[in-house]
Amino acid sequence: MTFNPMYLLIIGSALLAWYAQARVRQVHEKYAAVENSRAISGQDAARALLAFHKLVDVKVERTPGLYTDHYDPQANVLRLSDGVANGRSLTALGIVAHEVGHAIQDAEGYRFMRIRTFLAQRVGTMTQWSSLIFVGGMLFGIPSLMGLGGLLLAGLAIFSLVTLPVERNASDRALASLNAAGLAAAEELDPVRQVLGAAAFTYLAALGQRLATFLFFAVVVAAARGLW
Question: How many structural domains comprise the chain?
Answer without folding.
Answer: 1
